[in-house]
Amino acid sequence: MKKIAVLTSGGDAPGMNAALRAVVRTATYYGMEVYGAKRGFDGLIQGDIYKMKSYSVSNIISLGGTILKTARSVDFHAQEGRDKAYEQLQSRGIEGLIVIGGDGSMMASDRFSKAYDFPIIGIPGTINNDLYGTDFTIGFDTAVNTALDAIDKIRDTANSHDRIFFVEVMGRDAGYIAIQTGIGGGAELVMVPETETSIQDVISTLQAGWDRAKSASIVVTAEGNAEGSAIDIAQKVKSHINNKDIKITTLGHIQRGGSPSAFDRILSSRLGLNAVEALRSGKKGVMIGIIKDEVVYTPLDIAVNTPKPLNDELVRMVEILNS
Amino acid sequence: MKKIAVLTSGGDAPGMNAALRAVVRTATYYGMEVYGAKRGFDGLIQGDIYKMKSYSVSNIISLGGTILKTARSVDFHAQEGRDKAYEQLQSRGIEGLIVIGGDGSMMASDRFSKAYDFPIIGIPGTINNDLYGTDFTIGFDTAVNTALDAIDKIRDTANSHDRIFFVEVMGRDAGYIAIQTGIGGGAELVMVPETETSIQDVISTLQAGWDRAKSASIVVTAEGNAEGSAIDIAQKVKSHINNKDIKITTLGHIQRGGSPSAFDRILSSRLGLNAVEALRSGKKGVMIGIIKDEVVYTPLDIAVNTPKPLNDELVRMVEILNS
Amino acid sequence: MKKIAVLTSGGDAPGMNAALRAVVRTATYYGMEVYGAKRGFDGLIQGDIYKMKSYSVSNIISLGGTILKTARSVDFHAQEGRDKAYEQLQSRGIEGLIVIGGDGSMMASDRFSKAYDFPIIGIPGTINNDLYGTDFTIGFDTAVNTALDAIDKIRDTANSHDRIFFVEVMGRDAGYIAIQTGIGGGAELVMVPETETSIQDVISTLQAGWDRAKSASIVVTAEGNAEGSAIDIAQKVKSHINNKDIKITTLGHIQRGGSPSAFDRILSSRLGLNAVEALRSGKKGVMIGIIKDEVVYTPLDIAVNTPKPLNDELVRMVEILNS
Amino acid sequence: MKKIAVLTSGGDAPGMNAALRAVVRTATYYGMEVYGAKRGFDGLIQGDIYKMKSYSVSNIISLGGTILKTARSVDFHAQEGRDKAYEQLQSRGIEGLIVIGGDGSMMASDRFSKAYDFPIIGIPGTINNDLYGTDFTIGFDTAVNTALDAIDKIRDTANSHDRIFFVEVMGRDAGYIAIQTGIGGGAELVMVPETETSIQDVISTLQAGWDRAKSASIVVTAEGNAEGSAIDIAQKVKSHINNKDIKITTLGHIQRGGSPSAFDRILSSRLGLNAVEALRSGKKGVMIGIIKDEVVYTPLDIAVNTPKPLNDELVRMVEILNS
């Protein structure tokens, strides 16, 4: 394989640039040409593709976001769009593609890879950590540290005012960010989509804390909860404990940005390096991941469609340590 | 003066602990006894008052929040509450009081100081910087740095996705946090309560940016804007530019917490030290502040009731540098 | 087991407080009494031991250092000291001990545990990550992030001045901090004790960079290198390339402190929780660790005496990505 | 004035990019052309000069270092070098120059401005804050915050081990960084070049702390102290108190880098904006500064040659609050 392309797709995640850098540097190391497509599959379709050199990725390992830009492509959902994308690759003699993105991007890659029998390696890049086939996705560790830093700040105010805070973190349908942030922040309760927590449970936990003279409490809620957003949950709880000072914070987009943590830089570098070697060795239609410190490959459709359960140990930790 | 008390009141602000430390250490330095009341005026009323020593404030200079805790006292608004507070002070032989807080706390201090002819020095502690009689209030610089750090993170995502972000910062009726965060974050537009910005202005500014091929934009809005919250404003703007990717973030309570910046630690230390010396020299019923690097004293009611205009230079900077 | 003790020993590491909190909370959860000894084995010998409750460890999860304080005990090396320590435990009816510390502390624990047949569980707490029997030690991830933050700052200056920087990081005889910091910081070269790097190698790598018009370079060196400290190495290199602007920075003790990262808080919490359960289940004389996401137990002497090699993958990453 | 140039010179400082951005944007706002010279006066001499547009400075406000790069020019010290620089300016029709740098750069600017009667405005950019004619120089606030963050981390270890730390900060012959870091970090003692502190003073202060059962101490020393470096001072102190655990840390180059603080971004933006307006209004041979929140202009030679004393209030604060 002499020419490959790389793109970032879907929501941005800290570490995407580090992965991109690793792809470009590794391809260069092996004497391959490497092309970057701008704005995900949209740029691929439109031919917004440029040759990248080793120096194109200098000093980007510490940057959040993605210098290639990213998008959720609508056109790529249509046959016509995918045909054009294929032509763009063909016309440049590009033989393999590396897609850095989340589950939507892996799904699109799967379809494309199969339809055109085109070698694609997916790199899991999403703060949500909701892809099967890897212990951690790119951006997750940074997002957790950002959310944790926010919780630490909120704890200052909660303690000073003897308040209850409901803090909503990102994660879509997955509770990974919530549970790790909750453990790390010593949250009195964590509500995740993977396990059922009723409003009554919330009230009981808070009540138990006050009975032990705990004056301030933080409840971390994942955005995908059955009981709704932090605002919804706080509203339902409020009516039962109306003499308490309750505040709500939705951490929002700060969780997506920022310079990647050491963990994310190293994870991204390792995935990027091995993704190029995977293409070289003839792998295709798989997502690269790291499970128990080993590089592994999972068919793209399985990576997307297999549920990834929360580690029970984490759930147990909240119960024993924080309540 | 041999015995004084100190309390923190109203919303917490980073640097309150540094000010408290300075009060305790300075009083100790001058051989005075110093008492801390918990939870603002509530603790004063209830006699939740304890003697503080130099070591009581060890290692708190770097902590957000307030170790004395704080509250917005309802009881202190009633004559009965204030009478009790006065008795608590009298019964302990306390001759002066230092109140660290925002405008509500300064107002309450003014009333109390006048009614009982009791020496009180106010120290301006609020992230909003909305008190006349000081260039900066305690916590403001830290809040701006926290908001700026958030804007930097959001910029990563805005650039990666070519998005428009509306970011709401705190500040109540004042635009100080918004304007400084906006300048520091290179926001394309800043909406503050002090100057009128119509929805049409917002649209024009954004449009002008796109005409110059600016793909991502950040609009910082203060919470006290006439046009409403960031959500309201984005809603109004959206209908005019419906083909654009718009996101909204309300930074919320993270702006109140965190370890104080160097600026806030030094400001707080200086105000705390001088507040004790002011009590010793017979000052009363004034808020201490620093204007153009000089320690100044402003009658409490004037500090609260005089409007504090935004520096025109700052407004000009947004226009020339960021648009 | 009804009564246990816990202490922190050796050099402090961020996350020790989180581990301590987990030990206290888990013991409390199981209805056990838990005692904390101050200043490591010294406090144990001197009977500086106090009962800890759930609230004793409130809000310490985010704190660097250790609230129990720590020390490298000289007295514990003597039979007399160990006898006294044993008496202190016996007299209080304490049946098990948890020691949070590095290799010296694990060695001392091993000797004590065997001599008195006393149940001890070791928890690996050291920024150096140099203990066999766990993928990561407490404090390592935080130290790497701190060092990385420093490298990012130094990169600003290196790039602005087209300079070469030699940056020495901690790690004693292990190159873990160096290699991870080097990868994450995009260092042009990393020198670790585990592999030989001659001065000629350094010069060649730097020269190769300049030949490719790379103007700024960062060399990360571990403190345990055969060629000496960063100062020594820079001196040797300097004479060969005397027309270049060379600077040296020894990061020093900032790497030991600071609020623990999310990773370290969760690792510490998990180890602390499981250590108590290990004592309850009758384990003794072992160090707890996590290998490939599984909790494992390694006899204390083996944990200390078995070399822990650097992951080859990491060495490969520096070569391919950074040169 | 239709064409101006800008350069950064001397040691880099966080905020230089923000100042550069303000210069370029303001010049553009007024319809002027603006040229950037690379690597300080060296680039000017060599004609390494390029036209800058508004977008040339997009997203640089948050970056440490300087995108124009910087250097301490040797050639500019010679008449020949300065002649060449003048020719480069003349040949491009450049009518004014803005120099962002420290005292060496201001001195060189003064000589050049006078010799060729060429309009130059200096912008004080140095972390040392050692220029007369401005309350604060660009980069100072960021450097203090970086040093303070380091002190906070070191405090964790100092407290955990009951240690004495000698921490050396930058500042050349000025004690500004030391005194502010010392106050903010609650250092038990601060040694600055502006006031004499004998080794005996150090010992007495430390001794007084131990007498009050203070177990850990931090001494902040400025690099320009008469008693030498932190290593020298610690060595001298050590012999008098040999039973104490003493550690030394030289913070070094981390103090120069990093994303600028809010304060530095706003200061830099304001100085850059006003510097362009100063050129337009016919000012020349002056350094722009801000004193007591007013923009002021000081002849370049006076800015360099007038001593800038430490604020007595700061010295007093260390004495009363930290000892």
UniProtKB/TrEMBL annotation, chains A, B, C, D:
Mg(2+) binds at D103. It is found in: Cytoplasm. It catalyses: beta-D-fructose 6-phosphate + ATP = beta-D-fructose 1,6-bisphosphate + ADP + H(+). GO terms for biological process: canonical glycolysis; fructose 1,6-bisphosphate metabolic process; fructose 6-phosphate metabolic process. Substrate binds at R163, M170, G171, R172, E223, K247, H253, I254, Q255, R256. Pathway: Carbohydrate degradation; glycolysis; D-glyceraldehyde 3-phosphate and glycerone phosphate from D-glucose: step 3/4. The keyword Cytoplasm applies. It comes from Persicobacter diffluens. This is ATP-dependent 6-phosphofructokinase. Pfam families: PFK (PF00365).
